[in-house]
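Worked example 4.2. Below are the chains of a multi-component assembly; read each line carefully before continuing.
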Amino acid sequence: MNTTTVNAEKISGFKLPQLSELLTGALVSSAIRLVALPLAGILAFLLLWSITAQNIDTSLGKFPGPAAVMEQFNALYDEHQRSREKEQAFYERQEKRNAERVAKDPSYEPRIRAYTGKETFLDQIITSLVTVMSGFLLAVAIAIPLGIAIGLSKPLNNAINPIIQVFKPVSPLAWLPLVTMVVSALYATPDPVVAKSFLVSLITVTLCCLWPMVINTAVGVAGIDKDLVNVSKVLRLPALRHVQKIVLPASVPMIFTGMRLSLGVAWMVLIAAEMLAQNPGLGKFVWDEFQNGSSNSLARIMAAVLVIGVIGFLLDRGMLTLQKLVSWDKSANQ
Amino acid sequence: MSWKKPVKTLAASLALAVGFTITPASGKELGYPEKEELTFGFIKLTDMAPIAIAYEKGFFEDEGLYVTIEAQANWKVLLDGVIDGRLDGAHMLAGQPIAATMGFGTKADIITPFSMDLNGNGITVSNAIWEEMKPNIPKMEDGRPVHPIKADALKPVVEKYKADGKPFNMGMVFPVSTHNYELRYWLAAGGIHPGFYAPHKGDTSGQIDADALLSVTPPPQMPATLEAGTIYGYCVGEPWNQQAVFKDIGVPVVTDYEIWKDNPEKVFGITREFAEKYPNTTVRVTRALIRAAMWLDENNNANRPEAVKILSQSNYVGADYDVIANSMTGTFEYEKGDKREVPDFNVFFRYNATYPYYSDAIWYLTQMRRWGQISEDKPDQWYKDLAAKVYRPDIYAAAAKSLIEEELATADQFPDFETEDGFRNPQTHFIDGIVYNGQKPNEYIEKFAIGLKSGQKL
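Applying the procedure described above to all two chains together yields the following structure tokens:
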């Protein structure tokens, strides 16, 4: 008995630590992989940035380092808060003015007009996000049906392919002047539902992020396993059911790859379009600051650059998650 | 952004304020504005101040106007915005409504009821050009150069570049900009030919026969373009000359105050259609702008520091306080450290600065003819008719009179509207000593050594 216990103890004493060691080893290594290494990378980047920044002299002062950018983040947030207070006061003044006018002229129907102050940095972020998502969704609505049609029909593919090939490599911004003029000409209502600038940004984004989705969808649809197509043929599925039951599920991974590519393009195009056309959003913020040429401008632009980068990253992650959720192919990775 | 409106309206209705009466600033005779929500465009320059002040000091709101103010990328975008209705009105170059009405560039009926300021521009050259110019400039006892500096000092430099086969590039902000005409005026007064336009031959670059090649750059980009070496000098409004001093990349050599003392500058432009469709709104906008201009010049410029603070906000001009203050508070810094008193560098109300004089419009037309933008001779009456089509002292007078009635202003602050004919007395303070009489534009054009004369056509 004694010996067995001892043995057992010996065994357990010998084995258990090894297991936990293994476990902690795995934990440590994954901690290093997931936290420490990225952290080290970021720290090294910040250090490098800081050192480089100190050695770049521009005519607007030194290139902003991490500290200066952080300071501007705070300043931008304060500005946002102040702007909200001003907004409050604006509405209060308006209420007063309306009440006064009603007192004088009872037939007057008071209206509340939207705040006319400047858009803060946070407002610009929201504007850009709304614009990019609207443009992207519009592109999805056009590209996926078009891609499926092209993928299913060889003749259609032959007809449309040259157009796609020609338009795909067009620099996004080459569209901008055309879009601006066309929107101005066609969208001439006195009381527009959405602002023209919003429409211009949106259509430019749509035009540019259409192509990766069309191509990927078409390729995905055309490349469906022959067995699946044969099954559909044997079952004599009607066209719509064929698309619904066979084509869509089978090509979902490719479609989502296309969507992910497109969203990345959309975000890049939007910022550039906003800069060029001075449409509201982060791009306008960057350009305004460049034009201001104040001693804080570079740090503020850098702050915007970081925000643009982080948002781009989050959009991509979001699409990836969505892709994994709807796709049976769990191997889709970074 | 329109998509935000519902949210904001909701927020506003939640934020119900307790109403108590304040004295209305709006007159009884003058009706309520037909259009209350307006969008005005501007370019990042200190002379947009009346618009910013009218907004920040609540003068627009006093008129029942809810105005959004948007910076524009360049003068072309701004003009197109007003024409296509994206903007209801804008801070404009005086030449823009005139040229648009005439059909040079874009054709559109644009009018102005309000002139925005006098002076406010400068000509800056790069440090390298300044070093080459310096030996040609006489010095005062303390060693500083004698001002005004004439283009005579630049002439040998330009000639050297020409002899070396290098183009001498300079920047201005728009083909019909004050800056284009001021730079040309200064250059030509010093014997440097700035080049002709020939629109009837499709040549709108303005470089025919030129010694110095002038090209267009938007105002806020001037310092960056100079720094990049694309141009050797430029003419632009403030704060972009002082910015060059602060950034240590260039030296302002002359201000427009020295080229032509108290010259008319920007105007507030709207379409004729807007003025006809919304007459009350037009008068109310003019009232608010007049009050803003008065505020800017009040008590001997006492409000200027506050104005500078407002303009330095990133949504207006956005440059640093110090840079804007340098010229807005009665001084101007030439070469770094050489800060001189120029009390009238920026005039917003004094000397009837805001009254839209026909003679001011006609001066611009004479320069358009001088440089070939108007390709053929026109009779004096043509100049006057066009000026009367664009400049609208009638709207200004209506606004001013109602302000006087409400005791927001006094009659002695304005020209005598009963006798005013819209022509300033012949003006003498030009750098080349030539006298300008707006009544006789053709006679005036004949006086220049460089420039098209009657009967000449390119």
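Take a moment to check your reading of the output against the notes. The two ends of chain A are 57 Å apart (CA to CA). The first helix of chain A runs from residue 2 to 54.
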